[in-house]
Amino acid sequence: MYAEFIWDQSVMTWLACHRHAFEWFNGLPQRVIIDNPKCAITKACYHDPEVQRAYGDCAEEYGFLIAPCPVRDPQKKGRVESNVKYVKNNFVPLREFRHITDANQQLKAWLMSEAGNRIHGTTREAPLKRFVETEKHLLKALPDVPPELAQWVQVKVHGDCHVQFAKCR
After folding, report:
1. What residue spans define the domains of the chain?
2. Which residues lie below 8 Å from residue 81, measured CB to CB, with a gap of 6+?
3. What is the pLDDT of residues 83-124, one digit of tens each?
4. Engineering a disulfide at 140: which of 28, 91, 96, 154 sits with its beta carbon 3.0 to 4.6 angstroms away?
5. How far is CA 54 from CA 2, 67, 142, 155, in A?
6. Does CATH place domain 11-138 in 3.30.420?
7. Structural contact between residues 9 and 39, judged by C-beta atoms closer than 8 angstroms
8. Is-contact 150 156, C-beta < 8 A?
9. Maximum distance among all alpha carbons in the chain?
10. Packed helices 11-25 and 53-62: angle between N→C axes, nearest 10 degrees
11. Is residue 16 packed enough to be buried (19+ CB in 10 Å), middle (13-18) or exposed (0-12)?
12. Residue 19 and residue 17: Cα distance in Å, rounded?
């Protein structure tokens, strides 16, 4: 499992979290199953969801398939979000964090020790052991040079012939 505390769910944060997860696992999956957040899916649809442009570019550069959960299908959505509930109920209580970096450091240590070595409720195996023995070899290699993560936005030209992006001209 990979988890990370973040302040927002912007497109750039979403892309950075994907990069961090790929580096954490030291490989790329063939497909990434996600819920339908606005930073990834601009129009949720059962048959033809509309993928956010920057996320689509990221998937193409890395070479993975985006697999959004079907709309109004709680059985499939639960699998995606069950790790959030697990971290919230088993890691967060009774811990103190000085800042977000400290929280993420503690979380990564917990993932490699307690969470990774527990007996998983579905597989009845330790997740780290299962990953090393069964799943790790299925990952594709990371690219030598990570793709550039870009954000696409609509801007307008002001009267002084400048455009503004993120409060910069």
Report:
1. 11-138
2. 35
3. 888 999 999 998 999 999 999 999 999 999 999 999 988 889
4. 28
5. 22, 16, 19, 16
6. yes
7. yes
8. no
9. 64
10. 20
11. middle
12. 5
Backbone angles phi, psi at 120, to 5 degrees: -70, 140
Reduced to 3 states (helix: H, G, I; strand: E, B; else coil), residue 34 is strand
54 neighbors 62 (Cβ within 8 angstroms) = no
User: Going by C-beta distance under 8 Å and a sequence separation of 6 or more, which residues neighbour residue 145?
Assistant: none
What CA–CA distance (Å, rounded) separates 66 from 44? 13
Give the list of residues 6+ apart from residue 80 with CB closer than 8 angstroms, or none. 33, 34, 35, 69
Specify whether the CB–CB gap between 52 and 42 falls below 8 A. Answer: yes
pTM value surpassing 0.85: yes
In this structure, what token pair is assigned to residue 118? 């527990």
Q: What are the two backbone dihedrals, phi and then psi, of residue 17, each rounded to the nearest 5 degrees?
A: -65, -35
Q: In the chain, how many H helices and how many E strands?
A: 6, 4
Which tokens is 63 given? 């070479």
